[in-house]
Amino acid sequence: MAEGSRPVLIRIRAAIPALRPSERRIAELFVGDPEVAAGLSIAEVAARCDTSTTTVVRFYQRMGYAHYKNLRMDLATEVAREQLARTSLPEVSGDIDRHDSLEGIVSKVAANETLSIADTARTLDMDALAGAVSLVLAARRIDTFGVGASALVGLDLQQKLSRIGRTAINWHDSHSAWTSAATLDDSCVAIAVSHTGATVDTVEFLAIARASGAATIAITNFRESPIAATADVTLTTAARETKFRSGALGSRIAQLMVVDCLFTGVAQASYDESMAALRNTYTVVHDRVIRKRT
């Protein structure tokens, strides 16, 4: 792809929160039905989105394209790739709606989450991941924080790091997170999780930690977000959200995938120490299992 380092649909999804209303309608057309959009002229896109051709030109230039035909070609390529990716998934189309059966809901959620993981794996910055691994490896202490569904992801990372002997703390409320962040120093790492990258409490946590001298890592879906501006390293997901956004379907699973990659990188880099800790922690938990009487 000549026009940017990330696939076009992922770039468009990531840009939506920052777009003007007229540009957002164009983005939603492309994301909602890229196969149809790839066949439309500039004038046809403008008519469907109730905007001007000038706005369409401004939109594709904002996405990194000098010519509209290149955007259409990349859209067509992405449509073909997604069709191939979906061949191993149940045949579903569209978003979840009020008439879906439970079987249809399961199929659509499975497709959404599978493609969120696949897109994140394709676009995850390996240099950024390596940088995050190095920071965690060198840290005396790691603090994690997120709000809502992102809090569960922060807790998952904290538990994983604790299993391999890392001093990791997850904070459940913002005031505790902020006061802890204020006590960090340059031997510590603060990791914040936010799908939008604009959750005020989470951004503030990372900003306080950075001001205290700690290294900072953000896990977010949007590179151009407030939280990325406060992070030394940003790990970007490529989640696909449905209209049931409050359930954090695609975002949570993509975040967990990034957390698993970060944890595994840390564990591998300290292989002998981590494997010994995993064996010990497994034994402690396994020995607490209630066994059936013979």
Descriptive overview:
There is one protein chain. With 294 residues, the chain is α/β, with parallel strands linked by helices. It contains 14 helices and 5 strands. The chain has helices at residues 8-15, 21-32, 34-37, 42-48, 53-62, 68-85, 102-123, 126-138, 149-163, 174-181, 200-211, 226-229, 249-269, 271-286, and strands at residues 141-146, 168-171, 188-193, 215-220, 233-236. Strands 2-1-3-4-5 form a 5-stranded parallel β-sheet, sandwiched between helices. Helix 9 (149-163) links the parallel strand 1 (141-146) and strand 2. Helix 2 (21-32) packs across helix 5. The longest helix is centred in the middle third of the chain and has 22 residues, at 102-123. It is globular, with a radius of gyration of 21 Å. The termini are far apart. The mean pLDDT is 88.
Write the layout of secondary structure elements.
Elements: H1 8-15, H2 21-32, H3 34-37, H4 42-48, H5 53-62, H6 68-85, H7 102-123, H8 126-138, E1 141-146, H9 149-163, E2 168-171, H10 174-181, E3 188-193, H11 200-211, E4 215-220, H12 226-229, E5 233-236, H13 249-269, H14 271-286
Parallel strand pairs: 1-2, 1-3, 3-4, 4-5
Spatial ordering of strands, largest sheet: 2-1-3-4-5
Order of helices and strands: HHHHHHHHEHEHEHEHEHH
The oligomeric state is: single chain
Strands, count:
5
* Proportion of beta-strand residues: 5-15%
Figure out the total of helices. Answer: 14
How would you characterize the largest beta sheet?
Answer: 5 strands, parallel
Question: How confident is the prediction overall: mean pLDDT?
Answer: 88
Termini separation (Å)?
62 Å
Helix % is 55-70%
Radius of gyration: 21 Å
> What overall geometry do the principal axes of the alpha carbons give?
globular
What structural class do you assign from the helix and strand content? alpha/beta
Low-confidence stretches: none
